[in-house]
C-alpha cells in the first residue's frame, strides 16, 4: 500500500507590523494623518474597523470648523464623546505647540508666551529657540533637564539643531523652579561659553532668558550678553541688526 506524502509546506506568513510598531521604529513623523488618528482612537468597532473609522474622522476634520468639530465627530457612527474629545484635544494641543512658528521675535517679551509653561516644571529645563534672518521663530527645543537648581548644557547639544536648520540666531532659556529670578555664577559662565561658541559658528546668541512663575530675567536687557570691552571696541557692530531690540 503506497501513501502519497505532501511535501509542500505553506510558508509562514509573518503578520504585518501595525502602525504602533512602525511608529516606534520610525518615529512619530512616520504615520500618515489617518494613521495618526488610528493611534489616537486606538480601535474601531465591530462594523467599522479602525482604518475605516480613521478615514471618516479625517473627512470630518477637513470639513469642520474648530467650534463644530466635537459635535460633528460625535455624529459619526462609532465615535462617542471620549474619542471625539481625544481627537479634538490632540488637534488643539498640536495647534498650541506649533503656534510659535513664523512669529516675529523683536524683544525678549515676544518669546515669553511660547516658553512660559516651562516655569511650572519642578526641575530646571534648558530650552533653545532658533530664529531665521527675519527673526521668525523656526523651532523651540528642549536641550536638557536638570535638578531643582541646576542643569548641565554643552554647546554641541545647544547648537546641533540650529546648525542643521541654518538658523541665524538662537535664544536660550531656562527656568528657576525655586529662588529669585536672577542669574547664578553658573548661568553667567554658561552664557559666556555659548556666546563664544556662537561667534565661531556664526549663529548669534541673541539672549539668555531665565523664567519663574512670576517674572523673567533677560541677559540682553541687562547688558550681559556681550562683554563691555568688546562692545566699546565695536567688535559686535556687524551684529547690531541681529540683536533683539530692547523693550521700550
Give a quick rundown of the structure:
This protein has 248 residues and is of the alpha+beta class. The chain has helices at 19-26, 33-41, 50-62, 69-74, 81-98, 108-115, 155-164, 185-201, 228-232; strands at residues 125-131, 137-145, 169-175, 204-211, 216-218.
Characterise the protein shown here.
The chain is an alpha+beta fold and 248 residues long. The protein is built from nine helices and five strands, in the order ααααααββαβαββα. A five-stranded mixed sheet has the order 2-1-3-4-5, sandwiched between helices. The longest helix is centred in the middle third of the chain and has 18 residues. The chain is elongated and about 85 Å long. The C terminus is likely disordered.
Intertermini distance: 104 Å
Helix- and strand-based class? alpha+beta
Any idea what the shape is?
A: elongated
Helical content band: 25-40%
**DSSP E strands, number:** 5
Q: What's the tally of helices?
A: 9
Which spans have pLDDT < 50 for at least 5 consecutive residues?
228-248
SSE order, as H and E? HHHHHHEEHEHEEH
The portion of residues forming beta strands comes to 5-15%
Oligomer: single chain
Largest sheet properties: 5 strands, mixed
What is the average of the pLDDT values? Answer: 84
How do the strands of the widest beta sheet line up side by side?
2-1-3-4-5
Using only C-alpha atoms, the radius of gyration works out to 26 Å
Task: List the topology elements.
Layout: H1 19-26, H2 33-41, H3 50-62, H4 69-74, H5 81-98, H6 108-115, E1 125-131, E2 137-145, H7 155-164, E3 169-175, H8 185-201, E4 204-211, E5 216-218, H9 228-232
Parallel strand pairs: 3-4
Antiparallel strand pairs: 1-2, 1-3, 4-5
